[in-house]
């Protein structure tokens, strides 16, 4: 049976619980990665390859984990990363995740490839907030694939704005869908079971976040992922969208610099949870690269990172090196799958406890005291 949620004391426990209860196909979808899985592996490994340089005897009685994000205050330096097709993970889909987020006041980025529509998700957010005597500080942001068709793009931006999402997070690391090996194997297996050979449809090339999206009740984003978008399209969006824009999936210093030149509010260093390019760099590696080649952009724009963060101490490392805040993906997905909104709440508690303990052991009482000299990255950078 499923362990009581209080027995989940660290992020990996949610995966164990979810794996035990989710349909195989759903677990494959959540846990999957590209090709031989090395981008995912490096995401998990790299955080463990840098060490802290703690300071002691600094009166760490009270600690404050607050950190502003794109002009919105936040109780925590982390948010729930956008993940498509939550209906394959929990029958309550995105509204269930939103409920958990609101209960803890954590921000969330909603995926274009969601099971429910942008309007339905915002409606559930508003209904939930209305039921509270005190408003939750939770804000919803919108993850967006830039459609090449500008009429369609304007339409979508209009919906996002009208719903009240707080900013556009444009995913730029997916001109095509990565090769999701486990999904592919499973699909081929299913095709064979009904006496067919897998037919490679165009959807594999420019399909949704996962090829099963329609079958699992997801919103196919076919026709939205576009191999044709360029920085010119971004310049156009920058002109027509008057809210904040974050580019999700920046993977080298040159593009980080370009994003700054294009007047973008923030960049999210990410390799899409290891689901896109095989042997892409971890966000930590890209962050170190930016520190070396264009340190001047740090502090001029917000820098987010995601991928493989599984412990509050990983979050602290990212912040030491200049990250504004971090995205956490799969742990929240597994928590949702195993326990619904209660699991999402529990996952926030786990991360916050680790953050608060880590801050005290590191000798800081507020996140703005985290500095690059509080980590030692020689091992990561020298081999
Ligand atoms: C994702 N991610 C993602 N990103 C995005 O921009 N749009 C999307 O629809 C999705 N969908 C999605 C589904 C699933 C199942 C996963 C695991 C991931 C990527 C996500 O936003 C984030 O970059 C990574 O999940 C972060 O890595 P961790 O925390 O999962 O290791």
Looking at the structure, what is the overall shape?
A: globular
Q: Tell me how many strands there are.
A: 10
Bound molecules: ligand FNR
State the distance separating the first and last CA atoms.
Answer: 44 Å
Question: What is the gist of this entry?
Answer:
The protein contains 15 helices and 10 strands. The protein is of the alpha/beta class and 383 residues long.
Describe the fold and architecture.
Keywords: Heme, Iron, Metal-binding, Oxidoreductase. Belongs to the cytochrome b5 family. Its cofactor is FMN. One of its GO terms (molecular function) is oxidoreductase activity. This protein has helices at residues 11-21, 24-31, 38-46, 93-104, 118-130, 150-163, 181-193, 202-206, 231-240, 253-261, 283-293, 312-320, 330-339, 341-362, 378-382, and strands at residues 51-52, 78-80, 108-110, 140-144, 167-171, 244-250, 266-269, 302-306, 325-328, 375-376. It is an alpha/beta fold. It is globular, with a radius of gyration of 20 Å. Ligand FNR binds next to α2, β9 and α13.
């Amino acid at each position: 049976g499923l362990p009581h949620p209080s027995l989940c004391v660290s992020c990996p426990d949610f995966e164990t619980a979810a794996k035990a209860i989710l349909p195989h196909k759903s677990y494959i979808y959540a846990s999957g990665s590209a090709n031989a899985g090395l981008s995912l592996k490096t995401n998990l490994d790299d955080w463990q390859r840098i060490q802290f340089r703690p300071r002691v005897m600094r009166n760490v009685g009270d600690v404050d984990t607050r950190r502003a994000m794109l002009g919105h205050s936040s109780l925590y330096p982390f948010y729930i990363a956008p993940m498509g097709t939550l209906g394959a993970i929990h029958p309550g889909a995105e509204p269930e995740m939103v409920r958990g987020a609101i209960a803890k006041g954590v921000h969330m980025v909603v995926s274009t490839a969601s099971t429910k529509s942008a309007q339905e998700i915002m409606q559930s957010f508003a209904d939930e907030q209305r039921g509270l005597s005190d408003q939750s500080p939770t804000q919803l942001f919108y993850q967006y694939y830039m459609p090449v068709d500008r009429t369609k793009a304007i339409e979508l931006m209009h919906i996002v704005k009208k719903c009240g999402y707080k900013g556009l997070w444009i995913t730029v690391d997916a001109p095509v869908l990565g090769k999701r090996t486990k999904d592919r194997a499973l699909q081929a297996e299913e095709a064979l079971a009904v006496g067919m050979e897998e037919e490679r449809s165009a959807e594999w090339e420019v399909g949704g976040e996962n090829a099963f999206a329609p079958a699992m009740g997801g919103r196919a984003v076919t026709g939205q992922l576009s191999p044709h978008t360029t920085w010119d399209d971004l310049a156009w969006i920058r002109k027509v969208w008057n809210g904040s824009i974050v580019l999700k999936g920046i993977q080298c210093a040159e593009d980080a610099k370009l994003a700054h030149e294009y007047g973008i509010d923030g960049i999210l260093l990410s390799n899409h949870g290891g689901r896109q390019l095989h042997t892409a760099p971890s966000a930590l590696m890209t962050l170190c690269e930016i520190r070396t080649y264009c340190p001047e952009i740090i502090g001029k724009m917000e820098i987010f990172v995601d991928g493989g963060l599984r412990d509050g101490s990983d979050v602290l490392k990212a912040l030491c090196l200049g990250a504004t805040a971090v995205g956490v993906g799969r742990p929240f997905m597994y928590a949702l799958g195993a326990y619904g909104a209660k699991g999402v709440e529990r996952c926030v508690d786990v991360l916050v406890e680790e953050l608060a303990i880590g801050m005290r052991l590191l000798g800081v009482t507020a996140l703005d005291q985290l500095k690059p000299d509080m980590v030692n990255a020689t091992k990561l950078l020298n081999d």
